[in-house]
Amino acid sequence: MLDKQLEAIVAQAHAAGVPDLCELPPVACRALFRQILAAADVAPADVDVRNCTIDGPGGPLGLRVYTPRGEVRQGIVVYYHGGGYVLGDLDGYDNVCRQLSEDAGAVVVSVDYRLAPEHPFPAAVDDAWVAFEWVAAHAAELCSDDARIAVAGDSAGALLATVTCLLARDRNGPAIAFQALVYPPAAAGVHGDYPSRTRHAEGPTLTLRSIGYFNRHYFGEGAVPTDFRAAPLLAEDLSGLPPALLQIAAFDPLRDEALAYGDCLLAAGNAVTAIEYHGLAHGFISMGGGVSAARLAQQQLAQALRSALR
Predict the structure, then answer these.
(1) Which of 89, 252, 256, 286 is catalytic?
(2) Residue 155 is a catalytic residue
(3) Contacts of 278 (CB under 8 A, 6+ apart)
(4) What angle, 0 to 180 degrees and rounded to 10, lies between the N-to-C axes of helices 26-39 and 4-15?
(5) Are strands 244-251 and 178-182 parallel, antiparallel or unpaired?
(6) Counting Cβ atoms within 10 Å, is residue 29 exposed (0-12), middle (13-18) or buried (19+)?
(7) What is d(CA 46, CA 57) in angstroms, rounded to the nearest whole number?
(8) Which among 155, 196, 210, 286 is annotated as catalytic?
(9) Distance CA 104, CA 140 (A)
(10) I need a labelling partner for 279 at 20 to 30 A (CA). Which of 50, 71, 86, 168 fits?
(11) Which domains does the chain have, with CATH numbers?
(12) Among candidates 249, 277, 244, which has minimal Cα distance to 261?
């Protein structure tokens, strides 16, 4: 059964005639997504915030750094926002990252990676990696000389986080202490036979049509991605990766592939904690101000990161 607070928010959106994201062109879709993110978000947490720009693979790459006040910083979290590689930005996820920084007691670095269709696959992956490398190289000034680093993200951002872990392993990159993955599209929403895609094809938040819309813009019309950087369930080797937290929504077409990814990580010998929120839907990480269960999920995410980075 859908959480009653979330059910009321969904009903209000339907009554207001809010369209499915896939019914709008990308620019208009991005504006709607910002409104959706703000609708049930938490109030801004009181943390220090600064913007910076680094050299990215496609030009200047924006980062936003959140630093908690009044306590010893536990470490650094590199955060990749959701939005199907087409939507999302630093402003839309500002409250999410502020709250995560305060709750986890950690420096959070939010990454403004390039979006499709202007920048198709693998632009987002390339930006995610460069941002992570920059954070690792500047850990002393961001936090401390011995700061531990975690990666985290929701939806498309969760995929970028876990792919960054795979790349760090394969490229002998900087150490990653933890990966926090919130409803990752581990099979790109297309590979495998996962019943949740049919069961929750119409949402209540993310729909199967919108998954197809995002994939067309990011991977190309008619393209079925076969690269592990697009679908980590296709990776030949998932061993030797950082401990993981998977947070999964019951009412989500991506539910089953996210669970399958957790199973594969476990089978490969990694430490994995998977939590399914039975009344929540895709997108709950930005609903902490209107849905009590979503706020609990935010707190559990932060506590897992705080423990891993201590």
Answers:
(1) 252
(2) yes
(3) 1, 250
(4) 140
(5) parallel
(6) buried
(7) 33
(8) 155
(9) 19
(10) 86
(11) 4-309 (3.40.50.1820)
(12) 244
Residue from 119, 200, 217, 282 carrying the catalytic annotation:
282
pTM of the model: 0.98
What is the Cα–Cα distance from 26 to 12, expressed in whole angstroms?
23
With beta carbons less than 8 A apart as the criterion, state whether 57 and 127 touch: yes
Decide the pairing of beta strands 178-182 and 149-154.
parallel
Cα distances (Å, whole numbers) of residue 218 to 83, 87, 103, 112, 163: 11, 11, 33, 16, 16
Is 252 part of the annotated catalytic residue set?
A: yes
> Is 101 part of the annotated catalytic residue set?
no
